[in-house]
Amino acid sequence: MSESDSEIAQKKKSLLQRMKEGLSRSTKNLSDGITGIFTKRKLDTQTLGELEDLLISADLGIDTAASITRALARDRFDKEIASDEIRAILAADIAGRLRGVAKPLVIDASKKPFVILMIGVNGAGKTTTIGKIGAKLRAEGKSVMLAAGDTFRAAAVEQLKIWGERINAPVCSTKVGGDAAGLAYEALARARAEGTDVLMIDTAGRLQNKTDLMAELEKVLRVIRKLDPDAPHATLLVLDATTGQNALNQVDIFGKTAGVTGLVMTKLDGTARGGILVAIAARFGLPVHMIGVGEGIDDLQTFDADTYARAITGAA
């Protein structure tokens, strides 16, 4: 094995380890449940029912849970099956469902600036995610500009300014309650003038006032397209894994208004129901670019279907 292959293998190993640590609550929920169901028992109607209930409780979704148990019933019914076998089968099935949506965020260098619109409800970790993505882009040698478009929350503006200082990226902002669309326009004009590689625009996330929020998002889109008809080049929806099934509604609502191009799921370390990612992939088929499994910058990871499936099921 060459040194580069060795380094890649080591990186994958550490990625799996970090993901296992971050997903430990979900892993414990699924893995312990599987152990409890399949301790020296044949695969019969009762064990299949218990497994299906367990998968649903982990938020994998009713359709996915039913599909997995049907496949097991077809291949292994009335045979003794060990919990490790179930974990391996489950991991392979989940990975197969997710490979099609596991797509890294690609910055098209021919778009300058490459405009990323960040959307999502308040509390999902949107502003922090902007900072972490910005840090990764800066580490790759790209110039980055941030726009504090969540103008209704002074804390969000301040948080983005702190990230800007931390990663050495300029931050465009306006007064609290100022016009978010006007700010986005000014930021894009400035980024173009300064030859910035990537412009990331934060937005408000007041979903309880859905009509106003969606009207504001539509205005932001309309205004920046006056400068660049193709912008934004990526619209990333940040989802909080701890909200469980509510995340499905958010994908639906934001998708209809803002034309979501990809997902970032945060706080997978804070829930025992990390399977919600599987349910979202099954229903919407949107690219999943990154997942957050902890507080550190390195804990926002490019999404890898096989690593996630092994980590969440506790498969070896």
Your description of this structure?
With 316 residues, this protein is of the alpha/beta class. The protein has two domains: 3-98, SRP54, nucleotide-binding domain (Four Helix Bundle (Hemerythrin (Met), subunit A)), CATH 1.20.120; 114-303, P-loop containing nucleotide triphosphate hydrolases (Rossmann fold), CATH 3.40.50. 54% of the residues lie in helices and 11% in strands. The chain has helices at 3-22, 24-37, 45-57, 62-76, 83-98, 126-139, 154-167, 180-194, 210-227, 246-258, 276-284, 305-313; strands at 114-119, 144-147, 171-172, 198-201, 234-240, 262-266, 288-292, 300-302. Strands 3-2-4-1-5-6-7-8 form an eight-stranded mixed sheet, with helices on both faces. Strand 7 (288-292) and strand 8 (300-302) form a beta hairpin. Helix 1 crosses helix 12 (305-313) and helix 5 packs antiparallel against helix 12 (305-313). The chain is elongated.
Count of individual helical segments: 12
Q: Sum up the overall morphology in one term.
A: elongated
Question: What is the CATH T-level topology of the largest domain?
Answer: Rossmann fold
SSE-based structural type: alpha/beta
Instruction: Give me the strand/helix succession.
Output: HHHHHEHEHEHEHEHEHEEH
Distance between the termini: 22 Å
